[in-house]
Task: inverse folding
């Protein structure tokens, strides 16, 4: 198939810094190329891909201080996609609702993967208006606030099978917290769980500018405890050692997580997960196999000693069954074929 992948311009594809959406776009794009599809990636000019790159900006906008209006290059890129639309069998957007108006007025099949939280009240009139724009969820729970949306599929994220693998040369000896330090991620809970179970905790997380005050006032004072070690942001090369050395990943979230990449990153390394039962968590964790979904701090604390009863080989095996980038790409190709073939679309409906 001739497929266009249209990414945000905030980060490169793959991102040089933090950027979950751009990582997923990269994984999908590279797998589609490996599968033999003709793929054009609309993204920032500093993106790296085996697909044909159509640059929407010179470089990632977050790294370009000369760009003061990020919507301007994005508007131009959308127009470029529109003018070239007939070169493709399908257009796959990763820009939330921004393509809906323009691309609902043309005939080339398109679909949008929604990567973020959907429980914001201002989204209701958007999806009340664009009832025919096909969208993909990344968990079934993500859909709940928008039953009126035109859901074309639910496709879980995936990672390249060999990107993160278990490290046999490290012995698990601590709890891990990975990702961002933000109020909804509840790093404070992770620290409290570690202290309550007398287990070391290593925190590998970034602090966005918007969360600096939260970090300084809420988290930083808690880092003085001898069981707690703050590492900061780590890259892909550091994750296998960090996660393989953990007894378990603690994800004590307090928000409707749309998916949660950190959970499958841990699973790829054979590391089980303890996560609070919000958003996608019950869908991602196989209870008693890859970890435990808990309802309270008491349940989380009680689950820590149970982590060692789980087979790390079984955790990795379940990752390979459910959360590889190849499985994700195959699911998208099946969706593309259905959307671009009227007969298949009618049969599915």
Result:
């Amino acid at each position: 198939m001739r497929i266009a992948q249209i990414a945000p311009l905030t980060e490169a594809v793959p991102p040089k810094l933090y950027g979950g959406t751009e990582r997923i776009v990269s994984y999908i794009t590279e797998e589609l190329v490996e599968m033999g599809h003709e793929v054009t990636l609309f993204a920032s000019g500093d993106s790296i891909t085996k697909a044909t790159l159509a640059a929407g900006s010179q470089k990632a906008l977050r790294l370009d201080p000369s760009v003061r209006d990020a919507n301007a290059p994005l508007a131009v890129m959308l127009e470029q996609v529109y003018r070239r639309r007939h070169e493709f069998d399908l257009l796959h957007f990763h820009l939330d609702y921004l393509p809906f108006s323009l691309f609902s007025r043309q005939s080339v099949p398109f679909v949008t993967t929604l990567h973020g939280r959907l429980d914001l009240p201002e989204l209701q009139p958007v999806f009340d208006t664009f009832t025919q724009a096909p969208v993909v969820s990344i968990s079934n729970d993500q859909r709940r606030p928008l039953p009126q949306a035109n859901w074309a599929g639910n496709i879980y994220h995936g990672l390249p099978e060999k990107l993160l693998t278990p490290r046999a040369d490290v012995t698990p000896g601590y709890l891990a917290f990975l990702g961002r330090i933000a109020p909804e991620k509840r790093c404070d809970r992770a620290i409290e769980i570690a202290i309550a179970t007398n287990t070391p905790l290593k925190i590998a997380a970034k602090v966005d500018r918007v969360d600096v005050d939260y970090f300084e006032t809420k988290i930083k004072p808690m880092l003085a405890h001898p069981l707690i070690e703050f590492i900061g942001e780590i890259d892909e090369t550091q994750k296998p050692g960090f996660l393989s050395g953990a007894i378990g990943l603690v994800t004590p979230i307090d928000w409707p997580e749309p998916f949660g990449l950190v959970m499958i990153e841990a699973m790829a390394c054979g590391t089980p997960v303890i996560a609070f039962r919000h958003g996608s968590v019950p869908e991602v964790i196989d209870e008693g196999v890859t970890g435990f979904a808990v309802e309270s701090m008491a349940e989380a604390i009680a689950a820590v000693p149970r982590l060692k009863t789980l087979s790390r080989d079984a955790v990795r095996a379940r990752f390979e069954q459910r959360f590889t980038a190849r499985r994700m790409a195959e699911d998208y190709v099946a969706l593309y074929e259905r959307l671009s073939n009227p007969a298949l679309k009618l049969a599915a409906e």
Notes: Residues 137 and 154 are 5 Å apart (CA to CA). The chain is about 35% helix and 20% strand.
